[in-house]
Amino acid sequence: MSKINELHNNIDAVRVVGPVAIGANGTVSGKVIDRQGFGGVEFITSYGAIVTTGTVATIVVKEGDATGAMTSVADTDLIGTEALASRLGGATTSGTGANVAKRIGYKGTKRYVTVDVVKSGTTSVGCVSVNAVLFNPEVAAVANP
Fold first, then answer.
1. What are 84-142's pLDDT values in tens digits?
2. 8-137 has which CATH code?
3. φ/ψ bin of 34: left (φ > 0), alpha (ψ from -120 to 50), beta (otherwise)
4. Where are the beta strands (DSSP E) in the chain?
5. Rounded to an integer, what distance in angstroms lies between the CA atom of residue 105 and that of residue 41?
6. Smallest Cα–Cα separation from 25: which of 47, 49, 63, 55?
7. What does residue 103 show for φ and ψ, rounded to 5 degrees?
8. By the 8 A CB rule, do 85 and 100 touch?
9. Which of 2, 105, 126, 131 could bond to 49 as cystine, CB 3.0-4.6 Å?
10. What does the pLDDT look like over 5-33, one tens digit per residue?
11. 37 CB contacts (<8 Å, ≥6 apart)?
């Protein structure tokens, strides 16, 4: 059996939340992603510098059969946990709680998915961004727009 070590033509990357600073007790709703033609999606969340240890940015993955009817995803349809993909309070040293990338996968069956970033606390979160990697396409090679 030959193994193909090539990912480039078998994924699509989509920005869900552009790099943004979230103010105190704010929420940023991500762009809704259409999964049609792809078997799964992995969300990659990047956290920039964060200056306070009490800052919490919670990732909430949502799904729906229509773009206007998104609901929170059941834990059984996630690979990993929203808590592990979130930036919880604690250490802010670079590579620990700041300047890190985290991930969470979706294995459910709904056509549309997105991520909200919910910030709690009185100070703003440094820069946060979320990208989606759609994988396992029905038809490869995937065009790079």
1. 998 876 656 666 667 889 999 999 999 999 999 998 876 666 788 999 999 999 887 77
2. 2.60.120.380
3. beta
4. 11-22, 27-29, 33-34, 38-47, 56-64, 71-72, 78-79, 100-106, 112-120, 125-137
5. 6
6. 55
7. -145, 155
8. no
9. 126
10. 788 888 999 999 998 887 777 899 999 99
11. 137, 138, 139
In the numeric block, the tokens 């200056």 are attached to 51
Q: Rounded CA gap, 57 and 82, in Å?
A: 10
**28 φ, ψ to 5°?**
-115, 120
Closest CA to 102 of 81, 125, 85, 79: 85
Q: Which residues contact 124 (CB under 8 A, 6 or more apart)?
A: 21, 22, 23, 24, 26
Nearest CA-CA partner of 115 in 103, 123, 124, 126:
103
